[in-house]
Amino acid sequence: MKTMLIATNNQHKVEEFQQMLKPYGYEVKSLKDVGLDIDVEETGTTFQENAVIKAKAYYEHLKMPVLADDSGFSINALHGEPGIYSARYLGKDTSYEIKCQHIIKQCEDASDRGCTYTCAIAYIDELGKEHIFTGVLQGEVAKKMEGTHGFGYDPIFYYEPFQTTLANVSDEEKNAISHRRKALEQVLAYIKEA
Known about the structure:
Layout: E1 2-6, H1 11-21, E2 26-30, H2 31-34, H3 47-62, E3 66-75, E4 82-83, H4 96-106, E5 114-124, E6 130-141, E7 157-159, E8 164-165, H5 171-177, H6 179-193
Parallel strand pairs: 1-2, 1-3
Antiparallel strand pairs: 3-4, 3-5, 5-6, 6-7, 7-8
C-alpha cells in the first residue's frame, strides 16, 4: 500500500479522495493524520497556481507524494467572481447561506446565469515532479437555495441534467459528476500510466 498525502483538513474532501484512490493501492493521509500544521499562503492568481503552491509547500516538509487542490465557484454575471476567493468571499467567517443569498440577489436580473465549479489538482510524485489536472462542471445560478446535501455553494448550483441543485441530490450522485471527480480521474489515469 502506497501513501498519498491529501493537503487538506476538510473531511469531505479526504473521504472523497479516499474512496477514489483506495482501489489503486493508495492509503490516503490528511494533514491531521501526518501531524502537519503549516499555514500556506495562497498567493496565486489562478486555481492551478494555488494548487501548486500548496502541494510544493507540503512536499518540501514530507518528501512524499502529495495531492493539493484549489477549487471554487465562478459566475459569468459577476465576471468570474468569487473564483479563487470562493471560501473567503464576503469574509472568511461569513456563512455560505449569506454568501448564496447575496449571489442570488446579484444575479436577479442577469441574462446569463451560467456558473462553473473548477477544481485544479496539483500532484507531486515521490520524485518531486509536478503535474496539474483541471476539472470543470458547468451549471446555472439557481433562483433560490434548494437542498440540504453537499456544502458550500451547492444549494445554488443548478445542474441541468439533474433538473435541480447539487444540494438536492445524494453525495454519490454529486461525486459521480463533480469537478473534483473530473480532475481526480485525470490524476488516476496518469498514476495508472506512470
